[in-house]
Amino acid sequence: MTGRPRSFDRDAALAAAVEQFWRVGYDETTIATLTSAMGVTPPSLYAAFGDKERLFQEASRTYFARTCEGMDEAATRPTAHEAIAEMLDGTARAHTDAATPPGCLVLTEPRLGSQRAAVRERLRSRLDRGVRDGDLPAATPTDELAGFLLAVMRGMSGCARDGGSAEDVLAIARTALRALPPPVDRGPLPPD
Amino acid sequence: MTGRPRSFDRDAALAAAVEQFWRVGYDETTIATLTSAMGVTPPSLYAAFGDKERLFQEASRTYFARTCEGMDEAATRPTAHEAIAEMLDGTARAHTDAATPPGCLVLTEPRLGSQRAAVRERLRSRLDRGVRDGDLPAATPTDELAGFLLAVMRGMSGCARDGGSAEDVLAIARTALRALPPPVDRGPLPPD
DNA sequence: GTCATTCCATAGCGATCACTACACAAGGAG
DNA sequence: CTCCTTGTGTAGTGATCGCTATGGAATGAC
């Protein structure tokens, strides 16, 4: 019933898998590189995580959860402009963090389209709140704008993957903010 | 000296190879799918194109030449705003043309970084001309702006690959234009 | 201790990868 | 026709892919 205990840290092994998928993508990641990076033999990998596909799903879910944390925290900024600026800034920092592979797994991996849609939905949701709060014009095309911002984030990821510096990626984010509608002036007091 | 003549159209076979690399990328394209799509057996492929790497180089060079044609033609527009708008519009149309795979080979394939740098350079060059012509402010950060536009184009390609419609991709292009500096008023005629 | 259960390590499965050896076919030169 | 050159088609190379059969090691239950 109980059996021999596992000889490796499952979470640590999963983190190593995340790092692999993140750096070279699903297709270029092989079971051999995974077992090497995770410090685990193939049978142990399959016993603990199923197959390559399920391991990738679990890895991408872990990765995506962290991404969403960052976005949700940035979304708490009082105005839509500040929130979007913080999201793009955090994205730029994450994409060029020397401690992790460049770019973003969700924005790069072809098969993670649904996660990208979720990111876009989060962007739109924050823009919608900006319209409700009155710091964005009522006529703001929030869905179009969210699609644009997702595209910019993807471009930032690609720039980082091509070796772009943190400043290069940040410059993209800064420029993208110019495409937002001008903030609505709501009087002498800050709206929050 | 003369030998047996080739039994297939080299250009047509190359075009089929371009289509393969374009649709699924370098890594996912196998010799087997290439020979099938090109209507050629492996020895003929290797005799005519070298190996997979050289075939890809020739295919991407062919593809890139067409891309540059489109950009150079768009660059002839009188103002920088019109030229950039035309480039983004042409990009959007190319990325969602039903007759070709969605997205862009150059903007998608990791190993084509130098071609992406060339696209960015073309964008910067046209922006620089806009500054010289006086339809962009003298202080315009043309290099940063070119990096931003390349990122947007990459995002447009990704959107198309994710199944985005022509209108979705065009909306990204339209929104990106809002990030350009306002045109310099150069007299009684409206600059737009 | 014995047993059942679970994990680990070696070793290798069939399939597919990029690529090619070999024999033959199709042309020009003489 | 006989050569010579070059392309074609079959069939298969060693390497690597994702994945697993098998046997032994490590635990708890009794």
From TrEMBL, chains A, B:
Q: In its UniProt entry, what is this protein called? A: Transcriptional regulator, TetR family
Q: What Gene3D superfamilies does UniProt report for this protein, alphabetically?
A: Homeodomain-like, Tetracycline Repressor, domain 2
- State the InterPro entries in the record: DNA-bd_HTH_TetR-type_CS, Homeodomain-like_sf, HTH_TetR, Tet_transcr_reg_TetR-rel_C_sf
Question: One Pfam family this chain carries?
Answer: TetR_N
Q: Which UniProt keywords apply?
A: DNA-binding, Transcription, Transcription regulation
DNA-binding region ranges = 30-49
GO MF? DNA binding
Q: Which domain of life is it from?
A: Bacteria
Q: Where is the HTH tetR-type domain?
A: 7-67
